[in-house]
Every structure is written in structure tokens, then in C-alpha cells.
Design a protein that fits this description.
It is a single chain. The chain has 81 residues and is α+β, with helices and mostly antiparallel strands. It has one domain: tt1808, chain A. It has helices at 12-25, 76-80, and strands at residues 4-8, 30-35, 40-48, 51-58, 63-64, 74-75. The longest helix has 14 residues, at 12-25.
Amino acid sequence: MLLLIEVADTTAAWDRRHKVPLYAAAGVPEVWLVDLPARTVEVCRRPKGATYQEVRLVGPDESLAPEAFPHASLLAGNLLA
């Protein structure tokens, strides 16, 4: 698996606190946490233990692309619709 996308409508805080660390511990290289109410995508990369070394928030008007496929970019708002 190169990218895992977690979509959260009401569970973003729980997913961030419990699920994302499990994904890091399992070695998933990149996780996108799509937080629908906040209208953001949290991009988590470079797992080390149960944390991600790189975490950034992407707003609906910004582009993002999986690290494994940098030319496959999309507008974050398309995930938030």
C-alpha cells in the first residue's frame, strides 16, 4: 500500500489520535485524513514508530499529490465535496 485515505465526518479527532498512529506503526508510508467538517486534508508522511515525521494541512483550494505519484495531483476540495 502506498497511500491510505481516511475520510472522517464525525470521527476526525479519534481517527487522528488512534487510527493514524496504528497506520504509522504498520509502516503505511502516507496517510491522508480527510476532515470533512474542517474542510482540510491532513497529509501524513514518513512513518517512524507510531508517528509521522511530516504532517501538513491542506486547504480546499490547494493541490496535493501522493508522494509515490507526484504527477497525479488533485485539488483538495475535490476530496471534501
